[in-house]
Amino acid sequence: MPVKLENVVPFGRTLEEYRRMLSLPEDLSGLRILGCGDGPASFNAEASRCGAEVISIDPLYQFSGEQILERFEASVPLVMDQVRASVERWNWSFHGGPDGLLRQRRKAIEGFLADYAQGKQEGRYLEASLPALDFEDGSFDLCLCSHFLFLYTEAFDEVFHLASLLEMLRLSSEVRVFPLLDLQHQRSRHLEPVIEALREAGYECAVEEVDYELQIGGNEMLRIWQATR
């Protein structure tokens, strides 16, 4: 199933959010990280400055920075109207409220755009889509997926989710995914069958609490790693 860009909101997150959402270590130096579906996040720019070797993949990177900003701005009114109409469904401990959330999203895309042209030249932003990626086995220490898998449960089926995670596991010894709730703030119906299939394939899986919650109840990530054989 191809990724349809109109299905996915082009919002990105900062390094601080990635650290909290995915329980990343303070010291990222030397880590080879693949970010899947990073979109206009400042994570790559910030983590690269911290000494990590980061590659972000997203079909969004077919566009110029100006075009990505246009897509972002076009999404803001609809998304923020929905958020403001349902403020009781969100945990505002990190963002402080809808205005703070939007400031964080603007901070992320500003950091992304400042780095995007150079990052593309350096091969840090690649136009590519799960579940088939053109990297050699074991190219990374860690594969991350923020706000794509499980969140878009209605747009992408269980087969797509499993194939994507197996591809990420081909490329690294550990995968982390956040959040595990879908757009309706319910745990994704794909989660349990995907975990079962991964365990049957010989992988270890754990749902772990993290220090970040925006969707109420959405403070968990899925961590998957290769079992010792």
From TrEMBL:
InterPro entries: SAM-dependent_MTases_sf (IPR029063)
SUPFAM superfamilies: S-adenosyl-L-methionine-dependent methyltransferases
Domain of life per record: Bacteria
Name recorded for this polypeptide: SAM-dependent methyltransferase
